[in-house]
Specification:
Layout lengths: L1 E5 L2 H18 L4 E4 L6 H12 L9 E4 L1 E3 L10 H8 L11 E2 L8 H14 L5 E4 L21 E4 L2 H7 L12 E4 L2 H5 L3 E6 L5 H9 L17 E6 L7
Parallel strand pairs: 1-10, 2-3, 2-6, 3-5, 6-9, 9-10
Antiparallel strand pairs: 4-8, 7-8
Helix pairs in contact: 1-2
Bound molecules: fructose -6-phosphate (F6R).
Fructose -6-phosphate binds next to loops.
């Protein structure tokens, strides 16, 4: 893993933006894997700025998001589809038929998961997968205990994840308890991975990741086995290392 230590959230977002701008401009038909959540918001805001300044275009970009809550329609303001549209897609020149986010409201979720895997394969795989990390080490919504061989599937969210994500909902009861998530193997099949980490709530997870012990009890630990991972991490998140 290539560790890039930065000062704070803003610098993390700037460096991550530089990284993606470079990939978007150097790949002919970039296939990006994207994450939602607080960590990537600054990155998406800056990508919109780069687009407005004419430095990048999304015309040839295809995207696959990591996950979506089960039971939420795309039009639901709490859905990850809505989040991505508001935070990135509607502000840039991406063609929406190149945008992929699992449909958590599909009537046949198993079929939806298979179709998602097929769509990734058909696009030639993910070139650059952007990841955040959960305080419990989850990547995507693959919680501790998920087999490393997992593919896109319906997953149960940990209590701690539900608690952490309650900040986006009116009450903890409203947080869906399941999601459709790319699998760990799906994530590991991407050609390159960019992990962004910020803040002291991630310090323990970061320390564990850097220890290097690989275990299904700590999903992100598998990243130690991928041969092209860049971690952009701020000082607060490195406080435990
Ligand atoms: C989001 C995702 C999650 C988040 C992680 C960190 O699509 O798959 O793994 O990346 O929960 O979330 P934040 O950035 O909100 O701390």
């Amino acid at each position: 893993m290539n560790i890039m230590r930065v000062r704070d959230y803003n610098q993390m977002s700037e460096k991550a933006t530089e990284f993606l701008v470079n990939r978007i401009n150097s790949l002919e038909n970039p296939v990006l894997g994207l994450a939602t959540g607080s960590t990537t918001e600054g990155l998406y805001q800056r990508l919109i700025e780069k687009y407005s300044q004419g430095e990048i275009s999304f015309k040839h970009v295809t995207t696959f998001n990591l996950d979506e809550y089960v039971g939420l329609e795309q039009s639901d303001p709490k859905s990850y589809y809505y989040f991505m549209n508001e935070r990135l897609f509607r502000h840039v020149d991406i063609s929406m038929d190149r945008v992929h986010i699992p449909n958590g409201a599909a009537s046949d979720l198993k079929k939806e998961c298979e179709a998602y895997e097929n769509a990734i394969a058909q696009a030639g795989g993910v070139d650059v997968q952007v990841l955040g990390i959960g305080a419990n080490g989850h990547i995507g919504f693959n919680e501790p205990g998920t087999p490393f061989s997992s593919k896109t599937d319906v997953v149960d969210l940990d209590k701690s994840t539900i608690q952490a994500n309650a900040r986006f909902f009116n009450s903890i009861e409203e947080v869906p308890t399941q999601a459709v998530s790319m699998g760990i193997e799906t994530i590991m099949n991407s050609k390159e991975i960019l992990l962004v980490v910020s803040g002291d709530t991630k310090a323990d997870a970061m320390a564990k990741l850097l220890e290097g012990e690989i275990s299904e009890d700590f999903p992100a630990s598998i990243l130690n086995k991928h041969d092209s991972v860049t971690v952009i991490v701020d000082e607060a998140a490195l406080a435990g290392s």
